[in-house]
Model the fold of this input.
Amino acid sequence: MLNTFRKLSSRVANLDKDPGGLIRSFVFFILFFLFVWLWIDPKLIYHGHGQSIMYPICTSEMNIFADFPPFPGRATMYVAARLSHYYYYSWAGALIITVIAWLLCVGTGKFITTVSGGGLRWLRFIPAIFLLAQHGRYYPFLLAENLALLIALFFLYLYIRLPLQGAGLRLVVFMVFSAVMYATAVQLYLVFVVLCGIFEFFNNRRWLIGLSCFFSALLIPYLAGTFVFDLDLSEAYHRILSFPSQLGLKEKILAFSFFSFFPIAGFGCGLWRFFAEKHKPRKSKSRRARKFLEYHRKSKLNWTLGTLILLAVTAGTVWFTCDYTARQNQHIDYFACHKMWDELLQQSRKSFGQSYDMFTCHDVNRALYHTGRLLHDMFLYPQHFAGLLLTQNRRFPKELLVQIWVKSSNTLYELGHINEAENASYEALSTLGYYPEGLQRLALINIIKGQTDAARTFLYALSKDFLYEDIAKQYLQRLETDPLLSTDEEIRRLRSFMLVEDSINKTTPKDLLEKNKHNRMAFEYLMAFLLLTGQHAAVANSIGYLDNFDYPQGRIPRHLEEAILLYMAMTNKKADTHGRRINTVTIRRFQKFMQHFQRRKHDLQTAAKTLEKEFGDTYYYFYFFLSDASE
Amino acid sequence: MKNRLFYLFTIIVLGALLIGLSYCTSSNRKIVIEEYNSVDRPAGIYPDYTDTVIPPNIAPLNFLIREKGTRYFVKIYSKQGKGIDIYSRKPCIEIPIRRWRKLLSINHGRKLFFDVYVADDKNQWSKFETLTNTIANAQLDRYLTYRKITICVQWKNMGIYQRDLESYRESIVLHNSSFGDGCVHCHSFLNNSPDNMLMQIRSSDYGTPMLLAQNGKVTAVNTRTKVTPGKVGFTAWHPNGNVIAFSINKYRMLYHSTAQEVRDVFDNAADLALYLLDSEQVISMGEITKPDRMETLPEWSRDGRYLYFCSAPQLPAERYSEVRCDLMRISYDCKTRKWGTLETVLFARQVNGSITQPRFSPDGRFLLFNVSEYSDFPIHQAKSDLYLMETETGRYRKLSISSARCDTWHSWSSNSRWIAFSSKRIDGRFARPFFSYVDQAGKVYKPFVLPQKDPTYYDSLVRVYNMPELIKKTIPIKTKQLSRAIFDYKHAPAVSAITGATPGRPLPAPKAKPPPAYEIPGEERE
Done:
């Protein structure tokens, strides 16, 4: 047995010394790293509050699992949560993913070589390709599972290298490894068990131990669930088969293909070895030597071909499996998070179609407001009134609530809807476990509300995160000298927007506008809401509010002009424009639209198609053709 | 080569040992400060452990010195025994636990002094005025059980924990991740002993069992009957241990548009009932299930003759700010199951607020209760205060220890000398557990926060402590037993209900309309 191991290890070592293979691996992983860094862009995953369920994040000082009872797989989840934090920097995230991919490649190579007896090493790249495909889908994030796979391969490697021959001893060691696997990396526990069984079947030809591996694997969850973790029996077994519940069908298929690759490959390699050894005649040394020389003559060509095929397969897999929609949404989310409004609007133009959801609609409107274009260009983009503030929670499935809280808390805060923003931030913080932006916002909200002590608690919590430490300390320092931050322009402005009279009824931008007539965001969001709900009469009667803001003298935002024209056309009444004039271009466009519309109003579908190109960006087009659809 | 490696390894190990040893001796070495400037004020320390009475069995009160300096020295001493000298380069003072215990154990009833010295960057020491605390004679129950939760409507990361007050050990009693993120709440104990424990569960997957743990066994009780169709809220053990009074509340969250506290809780309906352990029956009666009033927060008098509770007119949610609870009581005879007449102990108007959470001291001499502006759920009030009533005279007073912020969820130690309560006094947002000493005369002393190993622990903790309950020993039930009971609850049969008017008789066959005494206000009382 020992000899077999020595032979095996020397063979493995020799293969590792293969410079062609090493260079190929090096080239592959350099390209892998660059692709992940520059195209997949892990920072998008870190900021995926809105479009993807963000993976729990931990820092050295902030362990979100600390208050939980011990559960199987906690160690892997903790490490994953710690590593996730570094996804903030794309290069660091890419490095983590690449290292995992490389380790998987090495581990798979060792296992494949052992089981197949030296051949089929090219299979080792497949996990890395799967990993790339997985990240190309962005949602959800399976770092804990990938780490669990690494741990499984590590223990498998130890098991393979065991210098023990006795069946009983091997089984005992297997049980110990299994228990450790179950406790630390339960996600891939089954894969470990199956791979050990395959090894025993095909390499050691110990059918009994192989079978015992499978059966004893059933015992571990029971023992661990009973004596180590306080788990219900069904729960103890359920954990070895469960993946994050947020997986969609495609992601599920991908994840299961990835993780079942190992047992399938192991089994395939075992069979390959079995038949190869049975049917192939033993070659003489001289024949083997000839083959060796022949191989080396062709090696450059082989290397080039092999490398090209590898890269082509990788590129093809990524191209085929990548979720471009998710990528676009992640970008929008990232831009919204970093207030990169122009980039957001540019990106959202690419998202028209299926990927344009309520969240995109919400972010686009926010970007339009911040770039001063909401009442001018909002109908350039698909619209729905529920996407404006995302406060109509009942319209969304429960799984999306956390994303709604994250996004709406930003908008509500900017609107001056402080208490609602506070509530949404609490919910997001509690659901996500750790949410640094939420901590920062809650600190500011408490400063605005004059609750400096509470603000300090949030800032101290934030200061434990190295990414936010500086900003938290700056605020804490400022609070020492000015507990209400009364010199801070933003705080003062938002404080002036806050409602004075308490109510338990839902408050709207209208209430905020009534509290402070200079709250421009409340005004624009109110107008946008009125437009989206077809209340152009109310819009026409609100033009007086424009005087409170710095809109160009004598001018009216385009969509409001369109609403006024529609109001006048439909009611034959004059609107009070408070001395402001409607742009002649807007009037001419409206007249033209109405002429076309009158002619085609009996066939609205055709009319919608014909008029979309010329008038698709107008309020009246939305009103006549889209508002019902959006309802 | 091997030898070289061996020597290298030995040198490294020895080096590490030397460094470690020198570090230990330097931090424990005897410091004598001969020259110092006296400062005419006490040093600022956090948490505030000054001028208070502390239990002789409390864990070390580690603290942070809030004075600028480069080195810190603290001398802790009392009349007897060897004092504790702590030298630190950081303002965080960690007191060695063994020496602390020894010092406290031989100085019951005496003063405990803290001399604080701070050195500036020129190595000039300053000595601040001595901080003084008193070590009580009476021990504090060793364990504190509380619910630690995040501020949210979603039931996330919520659990009931127990903390050993003689050390810093905290352990989980039941975490909601054990049963699919349900709600775990309202734990209560019989006579401060964990041998008889109650806990309530609300779970969309497993239902709403009342977990009853007795003598190492856990039962999930299905309390839903005709007379108690809702979910159990607050519970109170009868001193004889055979009867549990409970409230059935139908809470609804309210959200304020401008108030300091965004969230508020409104009780859409609340009634009381009794669960009889020996017969496994639920009983109730008209006086404690009035349709036009809500009755909640039960508490038994120590002689077991009266059921105290809080009651307010049932109002619509829009009039939430008018909800003011009176303190009521009704006599009940456990043997005959006969109810007496309803009495008002204290009207809400007398205290100009809503009276909630009545808790009798185990010796029965005092009744501690809460007064807030409105509501039967004071934890969400920006301000609520603790009141103490002498049961013999009926005299009551607002406790001077009440802060300008919310103080709620109080409980007594088994010897009636200590109270534990949740207070938001530190930052106004997050409730933390505090303790106060109550002397024989009913004087309540300055409270102190539950000590933590890291004195800055509360600074960044964005979770709240609810319902701190003092118990004499560790809970003998395992988490798994509790979660197992929850999983098995689906198979638990509903207990039978009997009428209070005719004790012992089974509930009559359902009629088209139940008798008025059992009518529960509100249709959707699930």
In short: The radius of gyration of chain B is 26 Å. The longest helix of chain B spans residues 2-28. Chain B touches chain A through 45 residues (CB under 8 Å). Confidence is low (pLDDT under 50) at residues 499-526 of chain B.
